[in-house]
Amino acid sequence: MIKIAVDGMGGDFAPEPIVKGTLAALEKFDNIEITIFGDQEKMGPFLKKHDRLTVVHTPDYLEMGEKDPIKQYRTNKELSMFKALKALKDKEVDAVVSAGPTQALVVGGHFIVRRMPLMKRVAIAPIIPSYDKRGRILLDSGANVDLRPEHLRDFAVYASVVAKTVLKRENPTVALLNIGTEEGKGRELDVETFKLLKADPEINFYGNLEPKEIFTTEADVLLSDGFTANMVMKAMEGTAKGLGMVLKREIKSSFISKIGALLMKKSLKNFKRSLDASEIGGALLMGLDGVVIKAHGSSNDFAFFNGIRQAKEMVEADVINKVSEALEKKEVEEK
Amino acid sequence: MIKIAVDGMGGDFAPEPIVKGTLAALEKFDNIEITIFGDQEKMGPFLKKHDRLTVVHTPDYLEMGEKDPIKQYRTNKELSMFKALKALKDKEVDAVVSAGPTQALVVGGHFIVRRMPLMKRVAIAPIIPSYDKRGRILLDSGANVDLRPEHLRDFAVYASVVAKTVLKRENPTVALLNIGTEEGKGRELDVETFKLLKADPEINFYGNLEPKEIFTTEADVLLSDGFTANMVMKAMEGTAKGLGMVLKREIKSSFISKIGALLMKKSLKNFKRSLDASEIGGALLMGLDGVVIKAHGSSNDFAFFNGIRQAKEMVEADVINKVSEALEKKEVEEK
Lengths: 335, 335
Fold this sequence. Notes:
Two copies of one chain form a homodimer. Chain A is built from twelve helices and eleven strands. Chain A has helices spanning 16-28, 40-43, 69-75, 80-89, 102-113, 149-165, 188-199, 228-252, 255-263, 265-274, 301-316, 319-334; strands at residues 2-7, 32-38, 53-57, 95-98, 123-128, 136-139, 173-177, 204-209, 221-223, 283-286, 291-294. At the A-B interface, helix 8, helix 9 and helix 10 of A face helix 8, helix 9 and helix 10 of B.
């Protein structure tokens, strides 16, 4: 039985979609048990009894707009998110899923769950949409503004394990996001990381990848530092949102277009869905000594359900141990 | 009379769209004279006599795939692009327009035209599409991987002058691209640049802007270093291209969608056009001691025509002198 802790109060619309997504996951997967931490009174209207669901009444929780997660952590360790992480630390559960503020989850993860012994940094790794609908792992999407080449190499090892075991890619490739495809392009960080990835026998290195191929590339893992990958991710998001608005404006501009759009209704819905990362799951916090999934802040039931599914798959695939083994092997070789 | 030098052989499809765009510009604007540098034999089939057009036979030119522009410059200064730049240096013309390789134009610009005395770096500044169709200036889009805050501040001064005089924005705002909106977000470069821009009386500072607002923001100028802004630009390009492909795939997926798309033909065409930067013009090389416009490598007639229009407007607005005055004033104040 896989045990998952859910932060019932994280997310813009919590607790409704969190509770509903949790119940849907329990319905769908009969090999999971869930402990949900949250305000019993607020969750009450949406909760149903389930023999694999435990509710831990936790009246305190983080506000979504919270700007200073370190202070929050110091002030009150009884917040729903931190209690879920504590359960993971204490091995009461195998994974945590939260739609709460990313930085708080990163801070809480560091202080409570702690890093894997051989990982020096923790990355945020969302699965982003792709033309072939299979998704791509993009990291570090925002946890570390300053990274060294070795940190990026360790992330590449971790992400390769996830791509193989969870996303079921055979021999997954890792691309370095860069301003040009030739070796030697980019900043010193990129030049050095290129060399390290190219020389590593455990990594199937794709080479440099320009973000103009980001939606159509064959590469499975897209790698850069936490500033750059975050900017790229947000530029994708902004462009997709902007183009959706333009399309709507153009459709509304004439009667005949509106008729056309009605006939295209199913296609336009599929178009919209293909950009929707919540179809695939949340972001993985890579580097913690346990499985922690950050569901999107604006998660609906289905998005949160997918975050739980992803956590379950990570535990089933024994990702943490596989990554530990890969990193240990690497350390032995380098000595 | 405004004099413009055109590199007749630059661009993926040169010389045809270059010559045709040049003739269209001469037709449209009666206050310009154009000197076109290129292979007379190759340009011949598309050339027409025009009393404000001079053809300078220049059989040598850069290949678009050229990887080592510095070597090219050292080897042969008689290439069409470099002869056009030389004409600008010698004050025979007021501006240069080329669709040739960007890095060659940057290198040629540095060595031949030289920098404005008070500009320490040269930025690439394209005008990118926006929801309101007016475009935004994005810089530095790829000339400098390493920049200091003062360089970014100087670019902001330059871009503000262009936004005001050429794009006709009243009191244009400059946004710093960043991973969060609060002051203090980002790398050291971003934190220091934020302070400098905020304190500058000549710059109407918008604050930090996350790229998820890139298509819809009110800000007129979007600023970052040459690595980041290039990545953001390419992520926009990749997302727009990818989404276009998804839309096509969805339309083709059913008969009824195809009918719908036929009815929406005009809307879909407008949708596509709204993403097309060639509607607005080329990229400006900011910091050279003269107006140099880099038209898109895949320019068609209309895109190249727009590059010429943009060069003409830059000269009409006396941008180089206005920027020099602003930077001189700043230098005096800082002493």
